[in-house]
Amino acid sequence: MSPTATQVEVQLTKGALGPATDWRPKGAGAVVQFEGVVRPTESGRSLRGLTYECYEPMTSRMLGELGADIVEEHGLIALRVEHSIGFVANHAVSFRLYVASAHRKAALAGMDQFIDRMKQTIPLWKVPEWENGDD
Amino acid sequence: MTTITVKLFGPQARLAQKREVLAACASDTPTAGEVLEAVGEACPILAEHLDNSKLAVNHELVTSTDPVRTGDEVAVIGMLGGG
Fold first, then answer.
1. pLDDT digit string (tens) for B33-51?
2. Structure confidence by residue, pLDDT tens digits, A21-55
3. Is B15 on the interface with A (CB under 8 A)?
4. Which chain B residue shows the shortest CA-CA distance from A56?
5. Helix crossing, A104-121 with A58-74: angle to 10°?
6. Which ipTM score applies to this complex?
7. Distance separating alpha carbons of residues A80 and A78, to the nearest angstrom
8. Is the dihedral of CA B76, A81, A46, A121 positive or negative?
9. What number of C-beta contacts closer than 8 Å exist between A and B?
């Protein structure tokens, strides 16, 4: 059975993400949450932060399709992805993924695979904003 | 000859210092591969960064042999890495 829209949630937010919510889908025995935090350095250079760009509506649609694929492949209960757009200062959260399943292993595997595929296929870009305004 | 407006994002837009490139194609009915090649010719600084890029036409990823028509919304989808 194909995942329904209610099983996959996608939210793009301008700027840094706020605190995590108490996301606990009915029937879940495992809920895994991952947060991506902007690092203060990249390749040894100091960063002010990252600017994220998307290409809507393609980005949201593809995130939803990827989420549905992962839900189906791993037999998950639900998945929710939140991602920042625009500037996010270092140490702030720019990406959050929740995965719910009946058991731990499926949730962990689904989470790992979603992130790997997202980085390869989803039109979401990050541009480093260096300290001192360097290019 | 056809000129296609192609959108740029992220590091490629930063590198080109522009958000759009006018890709001049010899054919009246260019393929996505020909449009991508024309992007590199119109903006040489991007040429070496297009190898792993694809085109999106009307918000759908296409293959290099798919046609691009005048009026299509075209974007370079390359150098990904959100998260």
1. 999 999 999 999 998 888 8
2. 999 999 999 999 999 999 999 888 999 999 999 99
3. no
4. B59
5. 150
6. 0.90
7. 7
8. negative
9. 56
- Within 8 A by CB and 6+ apart from B56, the residues are A55, A58, A123, B62, B74, B75, B76, B77
Q: How far apart are CA A104 and CA A56, in angstroms?
A: 33
Question: Rounded to an integer, what distance in angstroms lies between the CA atom of residue A120 and that of residue B78?
Answer: 10
Position B68, amino acid: V
Tell how many helices (H) and how many strands (E) occur in chain A.
2, 7
Q: What token pair was written down for A19?
A: 């605190």
Residues of B in contact with A10 (CB under 8 A): none
The two tokens of residue B32 are: 């996505």
Residues of chain A with C-beta less than 8 angstroms from the C-beta of B7: 55
Length of chain B: 83
Eight-class DSSP state of B39: H
